[in-house]
Amino acid sequence: MVKFDIRQLRYLSREEFRCLTAVEMGMKNHEVVPCELIASIANLRHGGCYKILRDLVQYKLIRYDHKSASRGYHLTYAGYDYLALKSLSNKDVIYSVGNKVGVGKESDIYIVADQDQNQYILKLHRLGRICFRKVKEKRDYLKHRKNASWLYLSRLAAEREFSFLKALHTRGYPVPEPMAFNRHAIVMALAPGYPMSQVRNVTNTSKVYNRLMTLIVRLAQMGLIHGDFNEFNLLIDDEEHITVIDLPQMISTSHENAEYYFDRDVECIRTWFKKRYNFDSDERPYLKEVDCQQGVDIEMKASGYSKELAQKFEDLTLNTKEGDEEQSGSEEEEYDDTESEESEGESVTPGVSSEEDDAESESGEDEAPNNEEFQAFRDKQKMKKKASHTFKVCNKASLSKDEIKKKVRGCVAKKQLKKQRIKKGEKYYLKKEKSTDCDSALIPLL
Questions:
Q1: Which position among 228, 237, 280, 437 bears the catalytic label?
Q2: Is 228 a catalytic residue?
Q3: Are 233 and 245 in contact (CB under 8 A)?
Q4: What does DSSP assign to residue 68?
Q5: Average pLDDT over residues 214-240
Q6: CB neighbours of 36 closer than 8 A, spacing ≥ 6?
C-alpha cells in the first residue's frame, strides 16, 4: 500500500522539483539514475545536488539503490504523485486534496477541489501491486516492448483510460466527464451515486437490468467491450441512473476473445441480480446479434483491432508488390533492348572492364587478411588480459603477512564508510586532487 501524504508538497523548493524531474527524465533510459546524470540534467552544482537528493530520500520521494551494479536513485510512487499534482496545480485544476474514496487493485481514488470549491475525483493509477502483477501478460500496454517500469505502465493505463472517457463522453455514454490528465493521474467529474455493490434494494429491478444490458450493447455497437462490467464498476443514483467507471481494460469487438469477454460481462450482471435481488431473466444479448455501427475501437486503438487491419494491410502490400514486380519485369526487358541497340551502334573501349575487374579483385583480396589480422589482434588482447589477471594473483600470493593485514584493514574501513554514506542516501567518490596553489583537499558535504 502506497502512502499518500501531501503535507510536504507545499514546502518543496524549486530546486527539489528540478531534481525530481531530472530523476524522471533519467529513468527513460536508466533503471537506476546516477547522481552525476541527475546533476547535469537539473543543471545544479554538484554538492548542492547531493544535499537535495539526501532530503528527497528522507521524504521518501526517491530511493537510493546500492544493491545493483550501477548505483543511483529511482522515483517512488510518492515522488511521481508529487510531480503530477504539481503540474495539475500549476494549471489551476487542483487546489486542495481531500479524503480517499476508494481503493482498487490498480488505482487509488481521492476527492479534490479547485479554488472555487468545486469537487472532482482524482484517480491515481498504481500498477505493480502484489495482487495484480500479471498486467504485462494480460494487457497489451507495452505492445512490442518487453520491459518497462511500473511507473511507465501506470502512465500508459491512465492515458488509455482518459482517451476512452473522452471518446465515450462526447458520444453521450454515461461515464464521468474527464477534466485533465497528467502522468498517471486523471481528474474527472464527481459522478452522483453509490457503488452498486453497496446497494441492497432496487425499486424496479427489471428496469435496471434492462438498462445495464442496453449499456453493454451500446458499447458493442461502438466496437468496444468493457471487460470488467460488474457491480464494483457501476454507480447508481437515487433515480436509478447508472454511470460506468474503470475503463483502461477495454478491448475491441474484433479481438480473438471478444465473445468470451462479452459473455463474461453479461454473466456478471446476471449472477449479481440472482444473488442480491433474486431476479432472473432469460433475455440476454449475444455478440453475434450486435452490429458495430461506429469504429471507436479503431479510433482509440483498442487492443484487438490491429489484427484485421494488419491482414488488410498485408493484402494491399501483396497487391502492390505484384504490380511492382510486373512493372520492373517490363522495364528490364525494355532496358535490355536499349542496351543491345547501343552496343551495336557504339564501339566499346578495350581494357576498361578488365581494369575494373582487377580493382574489384584486389579490393576483395585485401579485405580477407584484414579480417584475419583483426581477429588475431582481438585474441592477443584476450590473452594479455588473462596474463595480467594471473600476474596480479601471483603478486597477492607473494605478499607478506603484515602487508596482507594492512590491505584487509583498509578494505574493512572502506566498507564501513560506504555503509555510512548509503544510510544517508548519498554517494561520494571524490578523488583528492593536489593543486600547486593550495595544499588543501576536497571534503564531501555531509
A1: 228
A2: yes
A3: yes
A4: S
A5: 93
A6: 46
Mean pLDDT over all residues of the chain? 77
Q: Provide the angle, in degrees to the nearest 10, between the axes of the packed helices 46-58 and 14-26.
A: 90
CB burial of 99-119 (b: ≥16 within 10 Å; e: otherwise) equals eeeeebebbbbbebbbeeeee
Contact indicator for 274, 256 with CB cutoff of 8 Å: no
CA 193 → CA 8, 15, 242, distances in Å? 33, 43, 8
Assessment of whether the complete model's pTM goes beyond 0.85: no
CA–CA distance, 413 with 416 (Å, rounded to integer): 5
What pLDDT shows up at residue 162?
A: 95
Query: What grid cell was written down for 104?
Result: 482498487
Q: Quote the cell numbers at residue 122.
A: 482524482
**CA pair distance 301, 297, nearest whole angstrom:** 6
CB 253, CB 308: distance < 8 Å: no
Q: What percent of the chain shows pLDDT beyond 70?
A: 68
118, three cell numbers: 468545486
* 135 contacts 127 by C-beta, under 8 angstroms: yes
| 13-33 core/surface letters (b: 16 or more CB in 10 A; e: else) | eeebbbbbbbbbebbeeeebb
